[in-house]
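Field: COMPLEX_INPUT
Field: COMPONENT_COUNT = two
Field: RESIDUE_TOTAL = 656
Field: MODE = joint
Values follow.
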Amino acid sequence: MQLENSFTVPVPVDEAWRVLLDIERIAPCMPGAALDSVTGDDFTGRVKVKLGPINLTYQGKASFVEKDEAAHRAVIDARGKDQRGNGTAAATITAKLLGEGSTTRVDVLTDLNITGRPAQFGRGVMTDVGNKLLGQFADKLAAQLGEGDAQGDAERASVAAGAAATATGVAEEVAQSVEQTPGDNAVAETVRKAGTAAREKAAAASDRLSDTGSGTGSDAAPSPTDTAEIAAVGATDTVSIAAVGAPDAASPASDAAPSGSDTAPVAAVGRAPSAPPSGPTAPPRRPATGAPPRSTPAGPPASTPASTPASTPASTPAVADTVRDRPLADPEPIDLLEVAGSAALTRYAGPATAAAAVLLLVVLAFRRRRR
Amino acid sequence: MIPAAFEYVRPTTVDEAVQAVAEGGEDVKVMAGGQSLIPVMRLRLAAPSTVVDLGRVAEMRGVRDEGDVLVIGAMTTHAEVIADPLVAQHARLIAEATETVADRQTRRRGTFGGALAHADPAGDLPAVALALDAEMVVAGPGGRRTVPARDFFVDYLTTTLDEGEVLVEIRVPKLAGQWGVRYEKFNRVAQAWSIVAVAAAVRRENGSIAEARIGLTNMGPTPLRASATEAALAGAGASPDAIAAAARSAAEGTSPSSDLNAQADYREHLAQVLTRRAVTAAAGL
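Field: COMPLEX_OUTPUT
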């Protein structure tokens, strides 16, 4: 059966792509999912599905079979089986990202195959469960990205304030702080690297500045406006903050700094806001955690931009959850009542027949006697 | 068809029950009548490590009168609800709907509170509790709280009951005035779950309908109120035409699922027809 879902995350498509491919970051957003190991494009994990009294834990492995960065399309193949022997789940999850300005729409197409008893529970239930799980996943992911955004705003504000003092100095400082971004995951590492690069460039810029004899003072004058602008731009995209801010702040002094956009998709990770927004330079705050509007499958996913890495959070488990089905080859739903009914029927058929036979005998005897 | 091994606890008071649930760990399951839990355990779709059986908690059984409110213990069985004179007098809709629940044997063991806490969208009693604006009294480690029915049902088989909480009793406001009630249930096999069902309570005043409350079963992951129809009926004349017109909006705002029993559009059609029948009967026409 096939399930279609889509949701929106509040970051531009390039960043969404990166975040969504970071399986260690998105797995915790999936309700009941846990990663056991990650090796390159292969990962193993568990997904726990709880529905009223029903409790299933699918354990298995998954891997990226396709990662098309240009089209922003990723395909994950996942399979697992229930720990208590309640059958298996297998899924091919195709995710496509479609950039919509500062947000990204994620379209997820899940081809799910569930065997065993859970499959017999009728389609209605499975659809509800799949949609519910994916909805929770999208909310959590958006909230996580939103947090990054809020921290980013504060950071941008501090960058802007600092820029008024000296452009290059700030750039260096910010870059340094980015470099020290705490966190030990891959994302933090990227940010730190970007920070190092930015700091070196900024340092070079200030060297050059002093060579030409222009003091920081006079050059700094234009910088506040520049930075403010940058910060405002930054506000629309969630994550790029600190790193973006750093190189750009450097640029008014000289062009040496690299353009920020690629540097650090996730600078905000784990950083505490350094200062409250100050003065007119502070970018307007966006609501941090608003859940993105979720739309259910609309038409065919737009072919162009997007890709979808993530929705698939999923390792195997996702399978179990994201699943929604369509008619083809659906397993026959099981009706608990029918199960009980047939059991009762077989149980009582014997006695019932016997009772009927006795009744018949009595009636016959009665009639004979009357005659 | 034999369940996995589990620990079994049978407390005798609510406090003991809450404590037993707290001590039961992560995979603890509260059992009321066991009429849904046991089949699922036998299919091994559920394998709780501990089952807390509320069957001996005497204080959770029975119906009592508290002025404007009828208090029904969560462990009161369906059979007891049907036979109870207080329910018959003040909440006849509950008795009428309970009579359609499953079969005699199940009604003997299944409980009112168990049916509500299980929150099966095809179950009959959640929609009735919703239509009557009942309140659920829930006991947990932090004491008791009261949840209105409209907030109690969250999703498919999911309620606001946290892990560690037990539904103790249900407070049903008595209907004051001239109320007529009706539960219309549609299923293909006697004793099966509802494909769609409608619970209606209608208050008549001077020949017209003053107020109507309509609960829908199985028209979404949770029981629903047919608010559009309720609004259309308020103040409407008690005529078949007016009721039929109002009933046409019964499916507004619902999201029924499609399964082997019925497609979503058929369920919407059923909701309209059953609402018309239920309201007509409740209004005494």
